[in-house]
Write a structure and sequence with these properties.
The structure is a single chain. By secondary structure, the protein is an alpha/beta fold. The chain contains 15 helices and 19 strands. It has four domains: about 35 residues; about 220 residues, 2-enoyl-CoA Hydratase, Chain A, domain 1, CATH 3.90.226.10; about 140 residues, no CATH class; about 50 residues, OB fold (Dihydrolipoamide Acetyltransferase, E2P), CATH 2.40.50. Helices cover about 50% and strands about 20% of the residues. Strands 3, 4, 5, 6, 7, 10, 11 and 14 form an eight-stranded mixed β-sheet that branches. A five-stranded mixed barrel has the order 15-16-17-19-18. Helix 3 packs antiparallel against helix 10, helix 6 packs antiparallel against helix 7 and helix 10 crosses helix 12. The N and C termini lie far apart (about 155 Å). The N terminus is likely disordered.
């Protein structure tokens, strides 16, 4: 009897363990899929977005379009950190596409970036009068990249790419670390942007909110399944074939039909200004430039060698531009500083670091001039291009003149010094000069006391044969 009871207890224990294991596996499976399952629930979307979750823009059906856009297609590549240079790049691209009645595809491959710059991009897209298609390629569009993607009229992803993790973070320059921000004053406005510019295009409001609150991430197929994007496309041609014929309702009030049957695809390259600013915006590079510029400037002034102060000022200005300082003001300061340094170099004997720094300042200052025809300038793109060419030509001419001056200075400095001598110079007698009776002569415009072993009358031409202290030895000049 005891043996039977023991066997019964063993079987019961095994069953309990198996049930426990099954429960644990269920919990693990639930935990691994909870973020996606939660995206199907509308509680967060209704709580944060409300009526904004109603579809008003984006792809619509059964609507008569006001016009047709295409078949010209422009595309741009937004890679690296989202900064103000990228905001300017996208804004200019939208204006070019509007002028040509073309479709704009924004290819995103970014880990994120500045929230303010991303919001400027969102605002530019919202004002667009042509469809802007966001297309995640290569790797990802995280954080600010996801915010931009959700603001586009059609959101697409390449297989293998990911989006998400939009919770803002604060960067600590002292430690180089990032700290997540949970302040509602910062979190709620970002959620509101998702609601206003993402959920209003029929995208899953709950999933958009979870991007910010829980840092959810989706691959291309998952984003399509949970109605976060509209298209999964292998490449640009595949994307255009899928959106061809779609009707898009724009926030501007127009409804347009996309014509991409036989698209004329062109890439819009960033301007020199955008390229320079985007390069400088790298946090590591901007930090190095700021540190070096400050140290060089301080040490140059403290050591009494102001020649290096120009280099320090140049690096400091470039570091400030990369950190978000007004690029237009940076351009003005670079041109002004470069002009001053070149002016100093012209009136300073020899050539050194001052003139070279001035030339670099002028070139970079001209490159950063806001003459791309972007927002805020009432000039045509053609005039802007002509003006930019003229400025480059002027800068090149100044650089060439300065380089020629440098070459001449170096040639002179390489020559052996020539000692001036009055011996052999011609002049004219002022007084009568006799042996033992000196008189005055004028040689090369100067009066000299002179002696001679022969008689020289006033007005005779003489030649200097020797000099003893302040007295010249002269004789008559015979041709």
């Amino acid at each position: 009897m005891k043996i039977g009871m023991a066997r019964y207890d063993s079987i019961r224990t095994i069953r309990v363990l198996m049930a426990a294991i099954a429960i644990l596996l269920s919990i693990g499976l639930y935990a691994s899929t909870t973020s996606y399952a939660q995206a199907d629930k509308g509680d967060l979307g209704a709580k944060y977005c409300g009526v904004q979750a109603e579809k008003k823009y984006g792809i619509v059906e059964g609507v008569e379009p006001d016009g047709v856009v295409g078949p010209k297609v422009y595309y741009i590549r937004v890679e690296g950190i989202i900064d103000y240079a990228m905001a300017e790049y996208i804004d200019n691209a939208i204006q070019v596409a509007e002028d040509d009645d073309a479709i704009l595809v924004v290819m995103l491959n970014t880990p994120g970036g500045l929230v303010d710059a991303a919001l400027e991009i969102v605002s530019s897209i919202a004002k667009s009068e042509i469809p802007v298609i966001g297309y995640v390629v290569d790797k990802w569009a995280e954080s600010a990249g996801t915010l931009i993607l959700m603001s586009t009229h059609i959101a697409a992803m390449q297989p293998g790419t990911i989006i998400g993790s939009v919770q803002p973070v604060a960067y600590n320059p002292a430690t180089g670390g990032y700290e997540p921000i949970n302040e509602s004053k910062i979190i709620n406005p970002i959620i509101e942007v998702f609601c206003e510019h993402g959920a209003s295009k029929g995208r899953n409001a709950t999933a958009l909110v979870r991007f910010v609150l829980y840092n959810d991430n989706y691959g291309a197929e998952e984003a399509l399944r949970y109605h976060v994007i509209e298209v999964v496309a292998r490449n640009l041609n595949d994307l255009l074939s899928q959106v061809n014929g779609k009707i898009v309702a724009l926030p501007s009030g127009d409804t347009v039909k996309i014509d991409a049957e036989n698209p004329d695809v062109l890439e819009l390259q960033p301007s020199v200004r955008v390229t320079v600013l985007h390069t400088l915006s790298d946090p590591l590079l901007a930090g190095i430039l700021l540190s070096l510029g400050t140290l060089i400037l301080l040490f140059s002034l403290a050591s009494g060698h102001p020649g290096g102060a120009g280099v320090g000022a140049l690096l400091l200005l470039l570091g400030l531009a990369g950190s978000g300082f007004n690029p237009n003001l940076t351009s003005l300061l670079l041109i002004l500083g470069g002009s001053i340094l070149i002016f100093i170099e012209i009136y300073t004997p020899g050539f050194g670091i001052i003139g070279g720094t001035g030339i670099v300042m002028l070139v970079l200052g001209i490159a950063l001039l806001p003459v791309s025809g972007g927002q805020g300038f009432s000039i045509s793109p053609a005039y802007a291009d002509q003006l930019l060419g003229a400025l480059y030509a002027t800068g090149g001419f100044i650089g060439a003149v300065t380089a020629f001056m440098v070459y001449k200075v170096i040639q002179v400095r390489k020559k052996k010094p020539i000692l001036w001598s009055i011996i052999g110079s011609k002049g004219r007698a002022i007084d009568k000069i006799e042996p033992g009776k000196p008189g005055f002569v004028i040689v090369e415009g100067e009066y000299w006391k002179a002696e001679s072993d022969e008689t020289i009358s006033p007005g005779d031409t003489i030649v200097v044969v020797d000099k003893e202290e302040h007295v010249l030895k002269v004789k008559k000049y015979e041709e």
